[in-house]
Amino acid sequence: MQELPPGHNVVVDLAGQSVTVVRYWSLDYTVHDTGESEQARADALFSVLLDATRLRLRADVPVGAYLSGGLDSSVIAGLIARHTSTPLETFSVTFDEAEYDESGFQRDVVTHLGTRHRSIRCSTAEIGGQFSDVVWFSETPLVRTAAAPMLKLAGLVRDSGYKVVLTGEGSDEMLGGYDLFKEAKIRRFWAKHPSSKLRPLLLKRLYPYMKNLQAQPEAYLRAFFQIGDSDLQSPFFSHLPRWRLTQQLGSLFSRDVSAQLAGHDPLEELRGRLPAAFSSWDPLAQAQYLEATILLPGYILSSQGDRMAMGHSVEGRLPFLDVRVMELAGHLPATVKMKVLDEKHLLKVASRELVPRSVLKRHKQPYRAPESQSFFGAGGTPSASAPWVEELLNTSALQTTGLWDVPAAEKLVAKVRRGGPLGVKDNMAFVFLLSTQLLTERFNATVGGTP
Amino acid sequence: MTDIEIKDQFNRFLVDNFMLARSVDIVATPSFLEAGIIDSTGVLELVQFIEETFALSVKDEEMMPDNLDSLANLVRFVQTKTAQV
């Protein structure tokens, strides 16, 4: 089975028995420096974004909007509420834990724009409870649980009588929003003066919500983000720390799977697919291209976006991924997108009148949800909402799929059950293990050895 | 506690808790950081383990690779700290 990549079409010639895949469009981040003022650029962005939004309101059913409390969905809601005649209903998800919850900002936007608003609370246990369906609809292994609240949100939309929502997805990739972009900028800045005491501290300022990183002694911070000369030359500089982390999940694989993967170098493969102009783009544009062509279509728009929405037959529409918005954004100089360390700078200028000050000024919070803790209660017993965890993770179930180094997988499960502090890597590994086990169970797939 | 006993305790802790520790020979690993065994949460877990297991208190300025980044460094660190108590 193969997926048709974004921006491609496939021609199936039944007579000639041939299948041809052709690329008809690709992202281009070549800067067109028009010398315009910041305000002129912001006005241009505003007007194309407004038109992209208006176009997506055309429907013979009412159209609503997701509202996360972040800048992007607030901008879309603002454009609809202030610049169209559509009566707007907005939808959001809230969490019990302050570190994930954004309901304060959601209320600010609702009050500011006067939208009719509905929200749904997603408890930690419910994430466990939804997860089997999440895997069923996403049809792929996952390393995060963040799709689960999105499935619940789509259910709220559907129950409210809506079939179509506009969302803010794509803005971070097109206009330069992700923390990863800032992290890469800081790492490059630091690499110029590797002995600087202050430069690595910028990394702590970048991730105020990561408790573990905040507690890190300087010597370790230095070691984690240490940059080698070869890294600086790599086209994947921005993503190397993250990809190296994810690659370590391979230590969970069985001998057979590891042997099959042995000759496979995904980075080399990717290098061969980069556009010819890639090396001439600035580092921010390079990082944006990697996000927009890998994580965006593969995870954000599919597993977490479209497939969760479609789980409740809801259609998501994305103004930031209008081709005109992408082309305008792609040609912007890096300093307009990220001014020093101010992310999505131009979008903030363009939307000053649309969104409340609190949202313009807030520290960007990535959308996340409680991870491994969603599946176990006190004492490491499976959460009542996800009793199936036990039978999917016992020794014989782990052996049956043939995918895992079973002792390694069991140690990971035991660690999660103990309920101690878990880092990003352990959480990803556990969610990957569990979602893969669910996938084989729900689709009755026979993987690996046992036929 | 002898060096060997301390070494055994660390070995078991690392293998039980850190994914990559299982696939390498811990004793022969010169740097946990370079081998990718310890990440930003891992170093905090390791410190917590030291404090609970050996009844020691690890100061912020002691949380550095010289003390924590290999089995040999860990044994030396624990022995030195224990001698001070």
Taking the alpha carbons of the first and last residues of chain A, their distance comes to 19 Å
Low-pLDDT regions of chain B: none
CATH homologous superfamily title of chain B: ACP-like
Spans of chain A of at least 5 consecutive residues whose pLDDT stays below 50 are none
CATH architecture of chain B: Orthogonal Bundle
CATH topology-level name of the largest domain in chain A: Rossmann fold
Short recap of the structure:
Chain A has 451 residues and is of the alpha/beta class. Chain A has helices at 38-55, 71-83, 103-113, 124-138, 147-159, 171-175, 179-192, 201-206, 211-214, 218-225, 229-233, 240-247, 255-261, 266-273, 283-310, 323-330, 334-337, 345-350, 357-361, 389-393, 395-401, 406-418, 424-442, and strands spanning 8-13, 18-23, 63-66, 89-95, 116-122, 164-166, 315-317. Helices cover 51% and strands 8% of the residues of chain A.
Written account of the structure:
The complex is a heterodimer of chains A (451) and B (85). In chain A, α1 (38-55) packs across α2 and α5 (147-159) crosses α15. Chain A folds into two domains: 38-176 and 289-361, HUPs (Rossmann fold, 3-Layer(aba) Sandwich); 236-273 and 374-451, no CATH class. Chain A is α/β, with parallel strands linked by helices. Chain A has helices at 38-55, 71-83, 103-113, 124-138, 147-159, 171-175, 179-192, 201-206, 211-214, 218-225, 229-233, 240-247, 255-261, 266-273, 283-310, 323-330, 334-337, 345-350, 357-361, 389-393, 395-401, 406-418, 424-442; strands at 8-13, 18-23, 63-66, 89-95, 116-122, 164-166, 315-317. Chain A is globular and about 60 Å long. The mean pLDDT of chain A is 93. In chain A, a hairpin with a 4-residue loop joins β1 (8-13) and β2 (18-23). In chain A, strands 5-4-3-6-7 form a five-stranded parallel β-sheet, with helices on both faces. Chain A is built from 23 helices and seven strands. Chain A starts with 7 loop residues before the first strand and ends in a 9-residue tail after the last helix. With 85 residues, chain B is mainly alpha-helical. Chain B has a single domain (3-84), classed as Orthogonal Bundle (Non-ribosomal Peptide Synthetase Peptidyl Carrier Protein, Chain A), CATH 1.10.1200. Chain B contains four helices and no strands. Chain B has helices at residues 3-17, 40-54, 65-68, 71-84. In chain B, α1 (3-17) crosses α4 (71-84). Chain B is globular and about 35 Å long. The model of chain B has no long low-confidence stretch (mean pLDDT 89). The chains are: A alpha/beta (451), B mainly alpha (85). The A-B interface holds A 210, 212-213, 215-217, 219-220, 223-224, 244-245, 248-249, 251-252, 405, 407-408, 411-412, 414-415, 420-426, 429 and B 15-17, 19-20, 22-23, 33, 36, 39-45, 48, 60-61, 63-65.
